[in-house]
Amino acid sequence: MEKFIAYIEQALPNRPGDTVLYQFKRQILDEMTARAAAVSARGLNDQKVLEDLILSEYPDLPGAYAAYSAKKASAKRAKRSLLFHVLGSVGFILLLLVVFLAVSFWTKAWGQTWVIMVDGILLWIDYLLFVGIKKLTSMRRLFQVFARVLLAIGVMVAAVAVFLFCMAVLHAPNSWLVVIGGIAAMFAADSLYIAVTRQKLAVIFYLAYIPAFFSMLYVIFGAAGLLPWSPGWVIIPLSLLLDVVVIAVLLIYNKKISREVARHWNED
To answer: pLDDT tens, 242-267?
Structure first.
């Protein structure tokens, strides 16, 4: 064990009071001791050979410590973040309640001020959703599917918050169109996310989203009186035509790439 201790102390820095470093040294020493006991139990009795064999299994203790320290730091940040968001949620809701009551008693407009409470909570939920999206995006690509789901939910939550404000406070006609706009924004946001994160089969989603997006625009413009329902419906077939254009451009581009690859292959 003395040789193990000497090796650990020589390979790693000596920083008294560093809890993480102490824990790592203790863990490595325990692993070495347990490993030595296991190998010795199999019949290897030469102490020097045994110690050299165990030490050879730990060629880069500084690198191992760096990874261990980074993992510990990440776990500590995660705990702080969780604590911040839990306390922040409680504090935000209490502050929101105070603002809601203050404005309500001051204006006596209880039929409208409820939006402060509801929209405030919805926007805080949106914030938490986007925190989750950021975390999932930084993880393996498999988890980005869930990030896209959260992104869609986040966009719709924001749209509902705007809809409630327009309906209860502004008394805007056709406020429900904000929700339809939220659906269109959801398609646009997911398309942007796909492009930024370079998702596989992105073109399939683009081809599906283009007509869906323009269909939502048709409803919005038609209901708002900005576009006659007829012949405004032509916008939908035109979106399908846009799909055809996208497919044609991709085919031409891929054909060009194939020719360049073949040319370089023949040159080599």
So the answer is: 988 888 888 887 776 566 555 656 55
39, part of any domain = yes
Q: Is residue 248, in this structure, part of any structural domain at all? A: no
How many structural domains compose the chain?
1
Helix (H, G, I), strand (E, B) or coil at 246: helix
233 domain-assigned: no
C-alpha to C-alpha distances, 113 to 85, 97, 172, nearest whole angstrom: 26, 11, 16
How does pLDDT run across 122-153, given as a tens digit for each residue? 999 999 999 999 989 988 888 889 999 999 99
* Phi/psi at 198 (5° precision): 55, 60
Relative orientation angle of helices 47-56 and 2-11, to the nearest 10 degrees: 30
Range of the domain at 2: 1-59
Q: Is 89 exposed, middle or buried (0-12, 13-18, 19+ CB in 10 A)?
A: middle
Q: Which residues contact 53 (CB under 8 A, 6 or more apart)?
A: 39, 44
> How far apart (Å, rounded) are the C-alpha atoms in residues 145 and 136?
9
